[in-house]
Amino acid sequence: MNEESLQAENILFFRNLDSCCQKIAEQTGNQDIASWKNSDYVKLSGLLYRKTKVHLGENTLKRIFGKVKTSNRYYPQKATRDALAQFIDFRDWQEFERINSLTIEKAPAPRPQPLEVPIQPSRKAKHTLKVILLAIVLLLGTSLWVYLKSLIGDRDIQLLCLNPNGISPHSALFKLSVKNNAKIKRSEYLIDFADGKSVKKSFSADLVNHYYEAPGRYFPVLFHYQKPIDTGQVYLQTKGWDLIAAVEHDTTRVYPVNSTVLQNQKKVSVSTTALIQSGVDTTKTFFVSFANIKPTTISADNFELNVFIQTSPSRPGVRCSQTDLIVYGENNFHSINLIKPECVVWSNLKFSEKQLDGAKDDLRPQGQDLRSGKQVKLRIENQNAHLFVDNREIINTSYKIPIGKLMGVKIRFAGVGSFENFQLNDLKTKESF
Fold it and tell me: Sheet harboring 157-161: ordered strands across?
Protein backbone atom coordinates (compact mmCIF):
# COMPACT_ATOMS: atom_id res chain seq x y z
CA MET A 1 0.00 0.00 0.00
CA ASN A 2 1.53 3.35 -1.03
CA GLU A 3 1.85 6.25 1.39
CA GLU A 4 -0.99 8.24 -0.21
CA SER A 5 -3.56 5.44 0.11
CA LEU A 6 -2.41 4.66 3.68
CA GLN A 7 -2.87 8.31 4.64
CA ALA A 8 -6.37 8.31 3.15
CA GLU A 9 -7.24 5.13 5.07
CA ASN A 10 -6.02 6.66 8.35
CA ILE A 11 -8.08 9.81 7.72
CA LEU A 12 -11.21 7.68 7.21
CA PHE A 13 -10.43 5.63 10.36
CA PHE A 14 -10.07 8.70 12.56
CA ARG A 15 -13.23 10.21 11.07
CA ASN A 16 -15.02 7.03 12.13
CA LEU A 17 -13.36 7.16 15.56
CA ASP A 18 -14.44 10.82 16.07
CA SER A 19 -17.98 9.87 15.02
CA CYS A 20 -17.99 6.97 17.49
CA CYS A 21 -16.78 9.23 20.32
CA GLN A 22 -19.53 11.75 19.57
CA LYS A 23 -22.20 9.03 19.64
CA ILE A 24 -20.82 7.79 22.98
CA ALA A 25 -20.96 11.35 24.34
CA GLU A 26 -24.59 11.64 23.26
CA GLN A 27 -25.44 8.45 25.16
CA THR A 28 -23.85 9.80 28.37
CA GLY A 29 -25.97 12.96 28.16
CA ASN A 30 -23.04 15.39 27.74
CA GLN A 31 -22.55 15.98 24.01
CA ASP A 32 -19.92 18.72 24.34
CA ILE A 33 -16.73 16.62 24.56
CA ALA A 34 -14.56 19.75 24.67
CA SER A 35 -16.06 20.65 28.07
CA TRP A 36 -15.47 17.19 29.61
CA LYS A 37 -13.60 17.03 32.91
CA ASN A 38 -11.73 14.14 34.50
CA SER A 39 -14.92 13.05 36.32
CA ASP A 40 -16.67 12.63 32.96
CA TYR A 41 -13.99 10.17 31.81
CA VAL A 42 -14.15 8.31 35.14
CA LYS A 43 -17.94 8.03 34.77
CA LEU A 44 -17.61 6.80 31.16
CA SER A 45 -15.04 4.19 32.26
CA GLY A 46 -17.58 2.74 34.70
CA LEU A 47 -20.43 2.80 32.15
CA LEU A 48 -18.25 1.05 29.54
CA TYR A 49 -17.30 -1.71 31.96
CA ARG A 50 -20.89 -2.18 33.11
CA LYS A 51 -22.12 -2.67 29.55
CA THR A 52 -19.16 -4.40 27.82
CA LYS A 53 -17.14 -5.90 30.73
CA VAL A 54 -14.04 -4.23 29.18
CA HIS A 55 -12.14 -1.84 31.47
CA LEU A 56 -10.77 1.32 29.81
CA GLY A 57 -9.07 3.73 32.23
CA GLU A 58 -9.74 7.44 32.12
CA ASN A 59 -6.26 8.16 30.70
CA THR A 60 -6.85 5.79 27.78
CA LEU A 61 -10.24 7.41 27.13
CA LYS A 62 -8.65 10.86 27.19
CA ARG A 63 -6.20 9.80 24.44
CA ILE A 64 -9.02 8.29 22.36
CA PHE A 65 -11.24 11.37 22.72
CA GLY A 66 -8.33 13.73 21.98
CA LYS A 67 -8.23 15.28 25.47
CA VAL A 68 -4.54 14.38 25.75
CA LYS A 69 -2.64 15.79 22.77
CA THR A 70 0.25 13.75 21.33
CA SER A 71 2.47 14.09 18.26
CA ASN A 72 0.64 11.22 16.57
CA ARG A 73 -3.07 10.49 16.99
CA TYR A 74 -3.66 7.56 19.37
CA TYR A 75 -4.69 4.36 17.52
CA PRO A 76 -6.70 2.07 19.90
CA GLN A 77 -6.29 -1.71 19.92
CA LYS A 78 -8.97 -3.95 18.39
CA ALA A 79 -10.46 -4.99 21.76
CA THR A 80 -10.73 -1.31 22.71
CA ARG A 81 -12.38 -0.41 19.40
CA ASP A 82 -14.84 -3.29 19.75
CA ALA A 83 -15.80 -2.15 23.28
CA LEU A 84 -16.44 1.43 22.04
CA ALA A 85 -18.67 0.13 19.23
CA GLN A 86 -20.55 -2.27 21.53
CA PHE A 87 -21.30 0.60 23.93
CA ILE A 88 -23.38 2.26 21.18
CA ASP A 89 -25.10 -1.06 20.35
CA PHE A 90 -22.99 -2.31 17.43
CA ARG A 91 -21.70 -5.87 17.36
CA ASP A 92 -18.06 -4.80 17.00
CA TRP A 93 -15.88 -2.07 15.46
CA GLN A 94 -15.93 -3.65 12.01
CA GLU A 95 -19.73 -3.41 11.87
CA PHE A 96 -19.73 0.19 13.09
CA GLU A 97 -16.98 1.21 10.66
CA ARG A 98 -18.77 -0.41 7.72
CA ILE A 99 -22.08 1.31 8.45
CA ASN A 100 -20.70 4.66 9.56
CA SER A 101 -18.30 4.97 6.61
CA LEU A 102 -21.26 5.08 4.23
CA THR A 103 -22.39 8.34 5.81
CA ILE A 104 -19.04 10.14 5.72
CA GLU A 105 -17.64 9.13 2.33
CA LYS A 106 -17.92 11.75 -0.39
CA ALA A 107 -20.65 11.20 -2.92
CA PRO A 108 -19.46 11.32 -6.56
CA ALA A 109 -19.88 14.70 -8.23
CA PRO A 110 -22.92 14.87 -10.55
CA ARG A 111 -22.37 15.11 -14.27
CA PRO A 112 -23.00 18.56 -15.71
CA GLN A 113 -26.35 18.84 -17.45
CA PRO A 114 -26.98 20.95 -20.52
CA LEU A 115 -28.37 24.36 -19.75
CA GLU A 116 -32.05 24.79 -20.26
CA VAL A 117 -34.06 27.95 -20.14
CA PRO A 118 -36.11 27.67 -16.93
CA ILE A 119 -39.82 28.13 -17.09
CA GLN A 120 -40.81 30.77 -14.57
CA PRO A 121 -43.79 29.63 -12.48
CA SER A 122 -46.57 32.07 -11.73
CA ARG A 123 -46.84 33.78 -8.32
CA LYS A 124 -49.89 31.66 -7.44
CA ALA A 125 -48.05 28.47 -8.36
CA LYS A 126 -45.08 29.49 -6.18
CA HIS A 127 -47.35 30.10 -3.18
CA THR A 128 -49.12 26.75 -3.65
CA LEU A 129 -45.77 24.97 -3.92
CA LYS A 130 -44.55 26.58 -0.68
CA VAL A 131 -47.68 25.50 1.15
CA ILE A 132 -47.34 21.94 -0.13
CA LEU A 133 -43.65 21.78 0.82
CA LEU A 134 -44.37 23.19 4.30
CA ALA A 135 -47.12 20.62 4.84
CA ILE A 136 -44.79 17.80 3.76
CA VAL A 137 -42.04 19.02 6.11
CA LEU A 138 -44.48 19.25 9.04
CA LEU A 139 -45.88 15.80 8.31
CA LEU A 140 -42.44 14.23 8.04
CA GLY A 141 -41.24 16.02 11.17
CA THR A 142 -44.25 14.88 13.19
CA SER A 143 -43.88 11.30 11.96
CA LEU A 144 -40.17 11.29 12.79
CA TRP A 145 -40.82 12.70 16.26
CA VAL A 146 -43.47 10.06 16.98
CA TYR A 147 -41.17 7.31 15.69
CA LEU A 148 -38.13 8.44 17.69
CA LYS A 149 -40.22 8.79 20.84
CA SER A 150 -41.42 5.22 20.43
CA LEU A 151 -37.86 3.84 20.25
CA ILE A 152 -36.89 2.40 23.63
CA GLY A 153 -33.51 0.81 24.29
CA ASP A 154 -32.32 -1.20 27.28
CA ARG A 155 -30.59 1.88 28.69
CA ASP A 156 -34.00 3.63 28.86
CA ILE A 157 -35.39 1.09 31.36
CA GLN A 158 -34.46 0.99 35.05
CA LEU A 159 -35.27 -1.39 37.90
CA LEU A 160 -36.74 0.43 40.91
CA CYS A 161 -37.47 -0.93 44.38
CA LEU A 162 -40.21 1.14 46.00
CA ASN A 163 -39.26 0.06 49.55
CA PRO A 164 -35.60 -1.03 49.52
CA ASN A 165 -34.89 -0.63 53.27
CA GLY A 166 -36.19 -2.76 56.11
CA ILE A 167 -35.51 -5.68 58.43
CA SER A 168 -35.99 -9.38 57.78
CA PRO A 169 -38.40 -10.66 56.76
CA HIS A 170 -39.24 -8.04 54.14
CA SER A 171 -41.59 -7.84 51.14
CA ALA A 172 -39.81 -5.74 48.50
CA LEU A 173 -41.93 -4.18 45.74
CA PHE A 174 -40.30 -3.69 42.31
CA LYS A 175 -41.38 -1.77 39.22
CA LEU A 176 -39.90 -0.76 35.86
CA SER A 177 -39.13 2.88 35.16
CA VAL A 178 -39.51 3.43 31.40
CA LYS A 179 -38.33 6.58 29.62
CA ASN A 180 -41.21 8.78 28.44
CA ASN A 181 -43.63 6.15 29.83
CA ALA A 182 -43.34 4.31 26.52
CA LYS A 183 -45.20 1.06 26.04
CA ILE A 184 -43.10 -2.09 26.36
CA LYS A 185 -43.79 -5.81 26.55
CA ARG A 186 -43.17 -6.29 30.27
CA SER A 187 -43.19 -10.07 30.09
CA GLU A 188 -39.85 -9.87 28.21
CA TYR A 189 -38.18 -8.51 31.37
CA LEU A 190 -37.07 -10.88 34.14
CA ILE A 191 -35.71 -10.10 37.60
CA ASP A 192 -33.18 -12.15 39.57
CA PHE A 193 -33.71 -11.22 43.22
CA ALA A 194 -30.09 -12.18 44.13
CA ASP A 195 -31.02 -13.96 47.36
CA GLY A 196 -29.81 -17.42 46.35
CA LYS A 197 -33.07 -18.57 44.80
CA SER A 198 -32.50 -19.55 41.19
CA VAL A 199 -36.00 -18.72 39.92
CA LYS A 200 -36.30 -15.50 37.91
CA LYS A 201 -39.65 -13.74 37.82
CA SER A 202 -41.14 -11.84 34.88
CA PHE A 203 -42.94 -8.51 34.99
CA SER A 204 -46.29 -9.94 33.90
CA ALA A 205 -47.86 -6.93 35.66
CA ASP A 206 -46.74 -3.41 36.52
CA LEU A 207 -45.36 -4.49 39.91
CA VAL A 208 -43.48 -7.52 41.24
CA ASN A 209 -43.30 -8.39 44.95
CA HIS A 210 -40.59 -10.55 46.51
CA TYR A 211 -40.20 -11.92 50.03
CA TYR A 212 -36.68 -11.59 51.46
CA GLU A 213 -36.16 -13.77 54.52
CA ALA A 214 -32.56 -13.17 55.63
CA PRO A 215 -30.77 -9.93 56.58
CA GLY A 216 -28.17 -8.60 54.15
CA ARG A 217 -27.65 -6.23 51.24
CA TYR A 218 -28.99 -7.59 47.96
CA PHE A 219 -28.40 -6.44 44.38
CA PRO A 220 -31.31 -7.75 42.23
CA VAL A 221 -30.60 -7.78 38.47
CA LEU A 222 -33.01 -6.94 35.64
CA PHE A 223 -32.69 -9.05 32.47
CA HIS A 224 -34.00 -8.47 28.96
CA TYR A 225 -33.75 -11.59 26.80
CA GLN A 226 -31.14 -13.04 29.23
CA LYS A 227 -29.06 -9.85 29.00
CA PRO A 228 -28.49 -7.95 32.30
CA ILE A 229 -29.46 -4.31 31.83
CA ASP A 230 -29.81 -2.81 35.33
CA THR A 231 -29.23 -3.51 39.04
CA GLY A 232 -31.26 -2.46 42.07
CA GLN A 233 -30.70 -2.59 45.85
CA VAL A 234 -32.49 -4.06 48.86
CA TYR A 235 -31.09 -3.51 52.36
CA LEU A 236 -32.26 -5.49 55.41
CA GLN A 237 -30.54 -4.43 58.63
CA THR A 238 -30.10 -6.09 62.05
CA LYS A 239 -29.60 -4.97 65.63
CA GLY A 240 -26.25 -6.57 66.43
CA TRP A 241 -25.60 -10.18 65.41
CA ASP A 242 -28.66 -11.95 64.01
CA LEU A 243 -28.96 -15.68 63.35
CA ILE A 244 -30.75 -17.44 60.48
CA ALA A 245 -30.61 -21.16 59.63
CA ALA A 246 -31.54 -22.84 56.34
CA VAL A 247 -31.73 -26.42 55.07
CA GLU A 248 -30.13 -27.28 51.72
CA HIS A 249 -32.57 -27.63 48.78
CA ASP A 250 -35.40 -26.19 50.89
CA THR A 251 -36.10 -22.83 49.25
CA THR A 252 -39.52 -22.42 50.86
CA ARG A 253 -38.36 -21.07 54.23
CA VAL A 254 -35.55 -20.16 56.61
CA TYR A 255 -35.41 -20.69 60.36
CA PRO A 256 -34.90 -17.64 62.58
CA VAL A 257 -33.10 -18.61 65.79
CA ASN A 258 -33.41 -16.68 69.05
CA SER A 259 -30.15 -14.71 69.04
CA THR A 260 -30.47 -12.72 72.27
CA VAL A 261 -27.82 -14.93 73.85
CA LEU A 262 -25.38 -13.96 71.10
CA GLN A 263 -25.14 -10.28 71.95
CA ASN A 264 -22.21 -8.81 73.90
CA GLN A 265 -20.22 -12.02 73.85
CA LYS A 266 -16.69 -12.50 72.51
CA LYS A 267 -17.62 -15.97 71.22
CA VAL A 268 -20.60 -16.21 68.90
CA SER A 269 -22.13 -19.64 68.37
CA VAL A 270 -25.36 -21.63 68.49
CA SER A 271 -26.10 -25.08 69.85
CA THR A 272 -27.64 -27.96 67.95
CA THR A 273 -30.41 -28.03 70.56
CA ALA A 274 -31.38 -24.42 69.79
CA LEU A 275 -31.49 -25.23 66.06
CA ILE A 276 -33.73 -28.26 66.62
CA GLN A 277 -36.07 -26.14 68.77
CA SER A 278 -36.29 -23.66 65.86
CA GLY A 279 -37.42 -26.44 63.51
CA VAL A 280 -34.13 -27.25 61.73
CA ASP A 281 -33.71 -30.90 60.69
CA THR A 282 -30.08 -31.33 61.72
CA THR A 283 -29.87 -34.78 60.09
CA LYS A 284 -29.83 -33.01 56.73
CA THR A 285 -27.30 -30.56 55.30
CA PHE A 286 -28.03 -27.21 56.93
CA PHE A 287 -26.41 -23.77 57.04
CA VAL A 288 -26.20 -21.24 59.85
CA SER A 289 -25.66 -17.53 59.06
CA PHE A 290 -24.57 -14.91 61.60
CA ALA A 291 -25.26 -11.43 60.19
CA ASN A 292 -24.48 -7.97 61.54
CA ILE A 293 -25.94 -5.55 59.00
CA LYS A 294 -25.79 -1.79 59.59
CA PRO A 295 -24.60 1.30 57.68
CA THR A 296 -21.17 2.70 58.57
CA THR A 297 -18.69 5.28 57.33
CA ILE A 298 -15.95 2.62 57.19
CA SER A 299 -14.51 2.12 53.71
CA ALA A 300 -15.20 -1.37 52.34
CA ASP A 301 -12.13 -0.86 50.14
CA ASN A 302 -9.75 0.04 53.01
CA PHE A 303 -10.20 -2.05 56.15
CA GLU A 304 -8.80 -4.92 58.19
CA LEU A 305 -10.91 -7.74 59.65
CA ASN A 306 -9.63 -10.20 62.26
CA VAL A 307 -11.58 -13.15 63.65
CA PHE A 308 -10.97 -16.62 65.09
CA ILE A 309 -13.18 -19.13 63.21
CA GLN A 310 -13.97 -22.73 64.07
CA THR A 311 -16.07 -24.66 61.56
CA SER A 312 -18.45 -27.54 62.17
CA PRO A 313 -17.04 -30.96 63.11
CA SER A 314 -17.78 -33.82 60.72
CA ARG A 315 -21.36 -34.96 61.25
CA PRO A 316 -24.32 -36.27 59.23
CA GLY A 317 -25.12 -33.72 56.52
CA VAL A 318 -21.80 -31.88 56.94
CA ARG A 319 -18.82 -33.26 55.00
CA CYS A 320 -16.89 -30.20 53.85
CA SER A 321 -17.04 -28.01 57.01
CA GLN A 322 -17.09 -24.78 55.04
CA THR A 323 -17.40 -21.16 56.13
CA ASP A 324 -18.27 -18.11 54.04
CA LEU A 325 -17.10 -14.60 54.96
CA ILE A 326 -19.18 -11.87 53.27
CA VAL A 327 -18.54 -8.11 53.47
CA TYR A 328 -21.30 -5.87 52.06
CA GLY A 329 -20.60 -2.49 50.49
CA GLU A 330 -22.89 0.19 49.09
CA ASN A 331 -22.57 -0.98 45.47
CA ASN A 332 -21.34 -4.59 45.64
CA PHE A 333 -19.86 -7.11 48.05
CA HIS A 334 -16.81 -9.27 48.80
CA SER A 335 -17.20 -12.99 49.49
CA ILE A 336 -14.60 -15.61 50.49
CA ASN A 337 -15.25 -19.32 50.91
CA LEU A 338 -12.91 -21.47 53.05
CA ILE A 339 -13.49 -25.21 52.90
CA LYS A 340 -11.78 -28.54 53.60
CA PRO A 341 -9.05 -29.20 50.97
CA GLU A 342 -10.81 -32.22 49.47
CA CYS A 343 -13.92 -30.08 48.79
CA VAL A 344 -12.20 -27.10 47.13
CA VAL A 345 -14.18 -27.68 43.91
CA TRP A 346 -17.14 -26.09 45.75
CA SER A 347 -15.19 -22.99 46.76
CA ASN A 348 -15.59 -19.49 45.33
CA LEU A 349 -14.04 -16.05 45.62
CA LYS A 350 -15.45 -12.60 44.87
CA PHE A 351 -14.01 -9.12 45.32
CA SER A 352 -16.35 -6.54 43.76
CA GLU A 353 -16.44 -7.31 40.01
CA LYS A 354 -13.74 -10.00 40.24
CA GLN A 355 -15.17 -13.53 40.60
CA LEU A 356 -13.55 -16.98 40.63
CA ASP A 357 -15.18 -20.42 40.87
CA GLY A 358 -13.52 -23.58 42.19
CA ALA A 359 -15.24 -25.63 39.46
CA LYS A 360 -13.13 -23.92 36.77
CA ASP A 361 -10.44 -21.91 38.61
CA ASP A 362 -7.52 -23.00 40.77
CA LEU A 363 -8.63 -22.09 44.30
CA ARG A 364 -6.57 -24.68 46.16
CA PRO A 365 -5.20 -22.08 48.65
CA GLN A 366 -8.78 -21.78 49.96
CA GLY A 367 -8.69 -25.42 50.98
CA GLN A 368 -8.43 -24.82 54.73
CA ASP A 369 -9.55 -27.18 57.51
CA LEU A 370 -10.88 -24.91 60.27
CA ARG A 371 -12.52 -27.61 62.40
CA SER A 372 -9.97 -27.07 65.20
CA GLY A 373 -10.17 -23.28 64.77
CA LYS A 374 -7.78 -20.83 63.09
CA GLN A 375 -7.16 -17.08 63.04
CA VAL A 376 -8.40 -15.41 59.83
CA LYS A 377 -7.38 -11.91 58.72
CA LEU A 378 -8.76 -10.05 55.70
CA ARG A 379 -6.95 -6.84 54.76
CA ILE A 380 -8.10 -4.71 51.84
CA GLU A 381 -6.09 -1.60 51.07
CA ASN A 382 -6.80 0.58 48.03
CA GLN A 383 -8.66 -2.33 46.38
CA ASN A 384 -5.78 -4.77 46.98
CA ALA A 385 -7.03 -7.79 48.94
CA HIS A 386 -4.94 -10.06 51.19
CA LEU A 387 -6.28 -13.02 53.17
CA PHE A 388 -4.25 -14.67 55.95
CA VAL A 389 -4.97 -17.91 57.82
CA ASP A 390 -2.88 -18.30 60.99
CA ASN A 391 -0.62 -15.47 59.73
CA ARG A 392 0.08 -17.23 56.42
CA GLU A 393 -1.04 -15.32 53.31
CA ILE A 394 -3.20 -17.50 51.05
CA ILE A 395 -4.82 -14.86 48.82
CA ASN A 396 -3.25 -11.79 47.19
CA THR A 397 -5.37 -10.16 44.48
CA SER A 398 -6.95 -6.87 43.44
CA TYR A 399 -10.11 -5.50 41.86
CA LYS A 400 -10.96 -2.37 39.88
CA ILE A 401 -14.40 -1.10 40.93
CA PRO A 402 -14.71 0.18 44.55
CA ILE A 403 -17.80 -0.91 46.51
CA GLY A 404 -18.14 2.14 48.79
CA LYS A 405 -18.92 2.27 52.49
CA LEU A 406 -19.17 -0.87 54.64
CA MET A 407 -22.84 -1.87 55.08
CA GLY A 408 -22.54 -5.11 57.06
CA VAL A 409 -20.85 -8.47 57.58
CA LYS A 410 -22.10 -12.06 57.40
CA ILE A 411 -20.36 -15.28 58.51
CA ARG A 412 -22.03 -18.47 57.30
CA PHE A 413 -21.27 -22.07 58.31
CA ALA A 414 -22.22 -25.44 56.89
CA GLY A 415 -23.41 -27.03 60.13
CA VAL A 416 -22.88 -25.28 63.46
CA GLY A 417 -19.49 -23.51 63.82
CA SER A 418 -18.49 -20.48 65.87
CA PHE A 419 -16.31 -17.38 65.82
CA GLU A 420 -14.80 -15.12 68.46
CA ASN A 421 -12.83 -11.91 68.96
CA PHE A 422 -14.33 -10.32 65.84
CA GLN A 423 -12.65 -7.00 65.01
CA LEU A 424 -13.00 -4.75 61.94
CA ASN A 425 -11.34 -1.34 61.56
CA ASP A 426 -11.00 1.32 58.88
CA LEU A 427 -7.32 1.50 57.85
CA LYS A 428 -7.42 5.30 57.44
CA THR A 429 -9.86 6.62 60.06
CA LYS A 430 -9.39 3.73 62.57
CA GLU A 431 -13.19 3.62 63.01
CA SER A 432 -14.34 0.28 64.47
CA PHE A 433 -17.33 -1.75 63.28
Answer: 157-161, 170-178, 207-212
Torsion sign, CA atoms 95, 96, 97, 99 = positive
Average pLDDT over residues 32-44: 89
Query: What are the phi and psi torsion angles at 4 (to 5°)?
Result: -65, -45
**Dihedral sign, Cα of residue 289, residue 290, residue 296, residue 299:** negative
Mean local confidence (pLDDT), 5-27: 82
Model confidence at 14: pLDDT above 60? yes
Choice between 260 and 315, residue whose per-residue pLDDT is larger: 315
> pLDDT digits over 109-141, tens only?
445 455 455 566 677 787 888 889 889 998 888
Task: Collect all residues with Cβ–Cβ distance below 8 Å to 221 and sequence separation of at least 6.
Answer: 159, 191, 192, 194, 228, 230, 231, 232
Contacting residues for 292 by C-beta, under 8 A, at least 6 apart: 238, 240, 241, 242, 408, 409, 410, 433
Distance, CA of 376 to CA of 325 (rounded, Å): 10
Instruction: Report the pLDDT averaged over residues 84-113.
Output: 75
For the structural domain made of 239-426, what CATH number should be given?
2.60.120.200
Domain 157-236 CATH superfamily: Immunoglobulins (2.60.40.10)
Q: Which residue has the higher pLDDT, 179 or 316?
A: 179
Angle of helix 93-104 relative to helix 3-28, nearest 10 degrees, comes to 100
pLDDT at 251 over 70: no
Which pLDDT score is estimated for 408? 97
DSSP letters of 320-365? S--EEEEEEESS-EEEEEEB-GGGGGG-EEEETTEEEETTTS--GG
Return the number of other C-beta atoms located less than 10 Å from residue 363's C-beta: 21
**Cα 69 to Cα 317: distance, rounded to the nearest angstrom:** 64
Do the Cβ atoms of 178 and 189 come closer than 8 Å?
Answer: no
Identical fold, 157-236 and 239-426: no
| Interatomic CA distance for residues 74 and 61, integer angstroms | 10
Per-domain boundaries in the chain: 3-103, 157-236, 239-426
In 10 A of CB 189, how many CB atoms? 24
